[in-house]
Specification:
Distance between the termini: 10 Å
Helix content: 25-40%
Radius of gyration: 23 Å
Number of domains: 2
Number of strands: 20
Strand order of the largest sheet: 3-4-5-2-1-8-9-13-14
Largest sheet: 9 strands, mixed
CATH class of the largest domain: Alpha Beta
Shape: globular
Strand content: 15-25%
CATH architecture of the largest domain: 3-Layer(aba) Sandwich
Number of helices: 18
CATH topology of the largest domain: Rossmann fold
Structural class: alpha/beta
Length: 476
């Protein structure tokens, strides 16, 4: 079976990225094409994207979309079928997609309700001679799209919402119910009401025909209070409509054999990583006798970065080293700088983000640390697998679904692809790093785990087939 899908999202690689959501939105259309699905992506026309409108055709117009006129333009851009919602009063401004100079944009509820409204209208009625069979909304920014379909006429289109991170819920005060074009009779706990207000994520969850999460384990975790963050009851109530579909990575972009910024190497000859390690060590001014680990992450407690100051000293004393790339909580940025000052030549830190440097880090390091307290899917550990940079991960979410932890059983079976630890605390991470030191000292065992990691499938083929089956079941 084949069909058409409108993907509604707030960011998309290669046009705009603040996190893994953009990678998924950008990769899924190409992954679905071989299994017969045409996916087009609807994005806001942020100021950085408005220059592309001149190469596109206007396919939709509304005279007053939450305070001003809005148009949707459609066309091809960098291999994607793209639709851009041009609403200058909402999106033509300096700053990030969600945050301005003074913090969150105060009209975010209307900005992304506009994106959702346009998505629902195009899904219901089509635009420019194209009409989807499925509306696929991503996260809170597109959460109202399934609700607008349900409450304003669904027609013959079905809807799916994917939860990439339940921590971000799109809260708004109840006074905006009418202005956001939502029906007052649906303001109750079984529908739109959420702790006295509105949540666009909840709105999507209670109205979509299916809910997906970005890993099977995360789908199960979301039914528990410690992970569901207030929405566990909604997930539990709709358990028969919840599907965990693991993300993949773009194996053309993340390829040790074809990455233009590194000394290329293959699955069969991972020893050539040594040249990349030398380059990386020079770039961070490091001289590490044992395993060189990296952290490429937002520097937040959610990512477990606060565990590093207690866990890393023992790793350094045992011969290890660490290179950090990321930004986030100022206190954690300072903590990383303190580690570098305490261990010169063994810890290096770059605050910020640099895509090219991240590729060089995965190519040159021996291990990547992902000690997240919760991780819906995670792509970092998959990049590590792809490059033979062994993941050291907490037992949660997509980390648990993608890394086979080293244990006596997996060592005997020859199946381990990394190191998994639990509970997620400094002691657990310290014990995992001790295991990493011991594994690195055994060159034969290290080479086996490294080969396993590089051969582990991390592409989109399996996941795209799962999405296609879900779309087909909903249409059927």
């Amino acid at each position: 079976m084949s069909g058409q899908v409108l993907s509604v999202a707030s960011e998309c690689v290669p046009f705009l990225k603040t996190g893994g959501l953009a990678d998924v939105v950008g990769a899924l259309p190409a992954a679905l094409k071989p299994v017969g699905w045409d996916m087009r992506v609807l994005l806001p026309a942020y100021r950085s994207l408005r220059s592309r409108l001149g190469d596109m055709d206007e396919v939709w117009f509304e005279a007053d979309l939450f305070g001003g006129p809005a148009r949707v333009f459609a066309g091809e851009a960098q291999g994607l079928s793209l639709m851009l919602l041009d609403a200058p009063h909402l999106f033509d401004r300096e700053g990030g997609p969600y945050v301005g100079p003074g913090g969150d944009w105060p009209d975010n509820a209307f900005r992304f309700a506009a994106l959702s409204w346009a998505g629902a209208e195009i899904a219901r009625n089509g635009a420019g001679g194209w009409k989807p069979d499925v509306l696929h909304a991503h996260d809170w920014q597109a959460g109202f799209a399934p609700a607008y379909l349900r409450y304003h006429g669904q027609g013959d289109v079905v809807s799916v919402i994917t939860i990439h991170n339940v921590a971000f819920q799109g809260w708004a005060p109840s006074a905006l119910l009418g202005p956001l074009r939502l029906p007052g009779n649906e303001f109750h706990p079984g529908a739109l009401e959420y702790f006295g207000g509105l949540s666009s994520l909840k709105a999507g969850m209670v109205t979509a025909d299916a809910i997906t999460t970005v890993s099977p384990t995360y789908a199960e975790e979301l039914m528990r209070p410690e992970f569901g963050m207030g929405l566990q009851g909604v997930i539990s109530a709709r358990a028969d409509r919840v599907f965990g579909i693991l993300n993949g990575v773009d194996t053309a972009v993340w390829s040790p054999e074809a990455d233009p910024g590194i000394s290329a190497y293959s699955v069969k000859t991972p020893k050539k990583k040594a040249a990349n390690r030398m380059t990386l060590s020079q770039e961070f001014a490091l001289d590490v006798p044992g395993p060189l680990a990296i952290v490429v992450s937002r520097l937040t407690d959610q990512k477990g970065i606060d565990l590093l100051p207690d866990a890393i000293p023992g790793f350094i004393e045992a011969g290890g080293g660490l290179a950090v790339l990321g930004s986030g909580d100022p206190a954690l940025e300072a903590a990383m700088h303190n580690l570098a000052a305490r261990y010169p030549g063994r810890v290096g830190v770059r605050i910020g983000y640099d895509e090219g440097l991240s590729h060089r880090m995965f190519a040159g390091a021996d291990a990547v640390l992902v000690p997240s307290r919760f991780e819906p899917c995670g792509l970092t550990q998959m990049y590590g697998l792809r490059y033979g940079t062994l993941p050291v991960v907490a037992l949660t979410g997509g980390l648990a679904d993608t890394v086979i932890g080293l244990s006596p059983a997996t060592e005997a079976a020859g199946t381990a692809t990394g190191i998994v630890f639990y509970p997620t605390d400094a002691l657990g991470l310290s014990q995992a790093l001790k295991k990493l030191i011991d594994l690195h000292a055994n060159s034969t065992a290290w080479a086996q785990v490294q080969r396993n990691a590089m051969r582990h499938p991390v592409g989109w083929e399996t996941s795209a087939a799962a999405y296609a089956r879900l779309y087909e079941s909903l249409i059927g």
